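== Sequence and structure of one protein ==
=== Format: two labelled lines per protein ===
==== Data for this protein ====
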Amino acid sequence: QVPLVESGGGSVQPGGSLRLSCEISVDTGNYLAWFRRTPGDERRGIALISSGGSHIHYDTSVKGRFSISLDSHDTLYLQMNSLKVEDTGMYYCAAGSRRFSIDSDDYPSWGRGTQVTVSA
C-alpha cells in the first residue's frame, strides 16, 4: 500500500486557489513536508511542519501564498492561494523525518504525487 496519498490537484487559472490533502497511514515522524517538482527544478521542499504543528517553514517562492497544516497527525494539508504559472508541477507529501529539514533524503515516506497545473 502507498503510505501517503495526495489529492486535490487539478487545473486552475493564475490567481486561483487549490487545497491539497495527504492521507497518512504511516508514522509521521517528527516532521512532515510538501515537495514540488517542476520542469525547471528538481524536487524541492516548499513547506515543512513539525508533528506538533508549532514549527513551520516555507520556501521563499510560496511564502505568503501557501499554508501548511496537519490535522491530528493523520491528514496533511497545503492551502494554495494566488497561484502562479510557476507553481505548475507535481506536488508530493513526505513524512518521517527526524529533523526539521528540506533535504528529501531525510524523509523515508512519500506519496506518489498530485498534479497541479496553472495556466490561462
